[in-house]
Amino acid sequence: MNTGTLQHETHTLLARLGVPESSYTQGDLVVHSPITGQEIARVAVTTESAAQHAIDAAHHAFLSWRTVPAPRRGELVRVLGEELRAEIETLGRLVTIETGKLLSEGFGEVQEMIDICVFAAGLSRQLAGLTIASERPHHRMMETWHPLGVVGVISAFNFPVAVWSWNAALALVCGNAVVWKPSEKTPLTALATHALFERAAAKVGNIPSGLAALLIGDARLGELLVDAPQIPLLSATGSTAMGRAVAPRLAKRFARSILELGGNNAAIVCASADIDLTLRAVAFSAMGTAGQRCTSLRRLIVHETIYDDLITRLKRVYLSVVVNDPRDRNTLVGPLIDARSFTAMQQALDQARSAEATITGGERVILDGAATAFYVRPALVELPAQADVVRRETFAPILYVLKFRDLNEAIALQNDVPQGLSSSIFTLNVREAERFLSASGSDCGIANVNIGTSGAEIGGAFGGEKETGGGRESGSDAWKQYMRRATNTINYGTDLPLAQGVTFDIEK
Ligand code: UN1
After folding, report:
1. What is the per-residue pLDDT across 67-95, written as a single tens digit (0 to 9) for each?
2. Are residues 148 and 96 in the same domain?
3. Mutation probe of ligand 1 site: the residue of 462, 468, 472, 473 with most atoms within 8 A of C-beta
4. Is 378 strand, coil or helix?
5. Which helix (H) or strand (E) holds 321?
6. What's the 405 CA to ligand 1 centre distance in angstroms?
7. Is the overall model pTM greater than 0.90, yes or no?
8. pLDDT (tens digit per residue) in 328-348
9. Three-state secondary structure call for residue 480
10. For the domain that residue 210 is a member of, what is the CATH number?
C-alpha cells in the first residue's frame, strides 16, 4: 500500500476545494485516515464562545433569509448542487480518505448531496399549503408554511457530508439558517463542504453571512446546539445512546427533533426468492461500507428449504470478498473507522460464540503499511435461535443468520428488536410481499421488496421507528418539519358567524 502520499493527497484535495491551509495544518484535533491509520491533518476546535457567536449570527442571518422568496432561496441550493457536481471526484475522494469507504461509495455520497440539492431547488417552488373548506359562509381556511429558525445538525462519521446536505438543502429552501456539528472523526469533509457552500453563496451573492455555520469539536458543542434557545429544530444522527441523552433535553424546551439513531435491519428470504439477485443484494447491504451504514443489513432470516443453498453460496462470497485499500478498484470491503469499532465487533462475535454460533470470517486483516488500520473479513454468523446479541446494533460487518419455516414467524423475528429503520423481503410471491408491506408486516420506516436494506434514494422520506428515533429526513414531505405551519381563517363576509354554531350576541 502506498502510504507516504496520503497526507499530501488529502492536503491537495482540501486546497482544491478551497479550504485554507491553516484549517487543516494547525489545531488540536488530530485526524487519522482509517485507510492506513496515519495522521492526515490537524484541525482547530471551535471554542464554546465562537460556537455561541455562530449560533447568534445564524439567528441574525435567519431574520433576513426568511423574507427572501423561496424560489430565490432555491437558487442558492441549486448553485450548491452545481459546485458539488463540479467537485464530485475531489470531495468523493476525500470522503474515501476520511471514512475508508470505497471510492464508488465516496462518489455516491456526493451524488446523494447533488440529488437532494436538485430535489430541494424544485421544492422551493412548491412549499404549498392546503386550502380547506370552511363551515362558515364567506370564509376561507388555508395553511401557510413559514420558515422556522436556526436548524441544528449533528451528523455521524459514516455519512459525513450527505446527512448535512439532506438537512441543509431542505432547511435553506425553507428559509432557515443551519449550524452543523459533524463527527469529530470527519472534520475534513465538513470543512470542504463548507468551503463549497461559501463558493456557492459568493456566486449567488447577497447571502446573509453566517447562514450556514460549522462547529468542529466534541459532544460539548453538540450540547450547545441541544440547549440553544435560538434553535427550534435539531436533527441528530448517531447512536441510540446519543438520542436518549438529546431527546429529553430538547423536549424540555419544547424544541423539535429529527432523530436518526440505531438500525438493526433484517431481510427475510422466502422459498420463492430469486437466489442470484438475493445473493448480490445481501452482499452489498451486509458488507458494503464495511457494515457501517445505519441501513446495513445485520440479520438474514432464511426459509429452511433454501437455507443450505443460500448460506453455502454466501459463505463462499464472505471468504473470497476482497478486503483491501478502498482506493483500489477491486476492493469491496474497506477498513473499519477505528480501533473501538474493531473491539466492539470482536466482543459481539464472542457473545455470538457463547450463543452457539457458527462463524465464517470476522478476523482482522493486516495490510502492508497499514498496521494501525482496522481491516476485517466480514463475518457471517449462523445462529440456532434468536440471541441477545442479535437485538443490539454493532456497527461492523456482522450478518446474523436465522432460519424460518412460516412467514408469520419470520415477520415476528424481524420485528423482535428495539430498532426499526430498514427491512426487506425477497420473494416472487405477491401475497408474501404485500403481507410484509402491510400494517401487520414490517414495523420499520423503510420496507423493501427484492432489494437490500441499504442504499435508499433521496426522494423518499428516510428514517425509522422505535429506538431509531422516529425522524424523517430527505424526500417526500420531510420538508414540513423544517417549517412552521400557520392555519389562517379569512372572513370576507359582513357577518360574524361562529364555528360549531356557538352564539355570542352582544348588545350594540
Ligand atoms: C446512514 O447510514 O446514516 O440508505 C445513512 C442508505 C444511504 C444513507 C444511509 N442512502 O444506505
Report:
1. 999 999 999 999 999 999 999 999 999 99
2. yes
3. 462
4. coil
5. none
6. 31
7. yes
8. 999 999 999 999 999 999 999
9. helix
10. 3.40.605.10
